[in-house]
Amino acid sequence: MASGSLPDGLSLSATGVLSGIPTERGSFTITVRATDANGCSGVGANYILTITDNTPTITDFGAVNTSVCVGSLLTFTATVGNVSGLYNYTLTNGIGTPISGVKNSAAFSQNLTLAGSGTQSFTLTINANSQSTSATTDVTVSSLPVPNLTNNGPISCTLPAVTLTASGGNSYTFTKSGEVIGTPGPTNTVDVSTAGTYTVRVANVTGCVSTTTTTVTNIAATVTVTNPATRNGVVNVSFSQTFSASGVHCPVVSVWPAVICPTD
């Protein structure tokens, strides 16, 4: 039999074998008494057993920002203790491919690109000294808005300005070649009179952003009238000269304000 305090997880068998997996650390004094079948016994000297804990520790594990958008690059940090030298780590949310590697700094930092949406639980596992430990933290990942942008063009003589109409969010910023058009905010329309490619930046209530584009064309013609070279006429003598027009589908010969459009 043994007296004193045995570490949790260890036991002494009747044959004198002290074994098991210790689950606490510290210094333990054990005294063993052996007794034979005739009742004779003897006591051994104090046996001092020291149990050390080589399990790595993780403290302050968390994300720099706990509410982000799908596709964002998020930084996770923690303090790793009870290790010396290199340790192995794995960071995962159970959805994407886990990130694994080797570090030697107590100040742990790792970036991870987020996939999926909703509240996700991220786990950091540290392996060192043939021991491992894990810690978890939650991050809310918000979906991106699905943007849409249309125009009622093309620009024409009868429609000198067209309207851009966006949808898919609750805040809109219109731009052309990087220049903001109109006032960013909840208004989802803007009128434009120049051809080109327009972009809208759509934000939803969580602040996540997506962009899309639309192209405005211009079919308004530039009409050019050419006068005839002859500028003189004679009273009571027949006169005929031709004014020509270009840049339109239907060439126009007109005397203002009357307009004559010959048949094509």
What's this model, at a glance?
The protein has 264 residues and is mostly beta strands.
Major sheet size, sense and barrel closure: 5 strands, mixed
Question: Proportion of β residues?
Answer: over 45%
Strand order of the largest sheet: 8-14-13-10-11
Our measurement of the CA-to-CA distance between the termini, rounded to an integer number of angstroms, reads 120 Å
Residue-averaged pLDDT, rounded? 89
Rg value: 42 Å
Helix/strand order, N-terminal first: EEEEEEEEEEEEEEEEEEEEEEEEE
Overall number of strands: 25
Can you tell me the overall shape?
A: rod-shaped
Number of DSSP helices?
Answer: 0
The structure class reads: mainly beta
Q: How much helix is in the residues? A: under 10%
Low-confidence stretches: 256-260
Characterization of this structure:
The protein contains no helices and 25 strands. It has 264 residues and is mainly β. 11% of the residues are buried. It starts with a strand and ends with a strand. The chain is 0% helix and 54% strand. It has strands at 2-4, 10-12, 18-20, 26-35, 41-43, 47-51, 57-63, 67-69, 73-81, 87-92, 99-103, 107-113, 118-128, 131-142, 148-151, 162-167, 171-176, 179-185, 189-192, 196-203, 209-216, 224-226, 244-246, 253-255, 258-260.
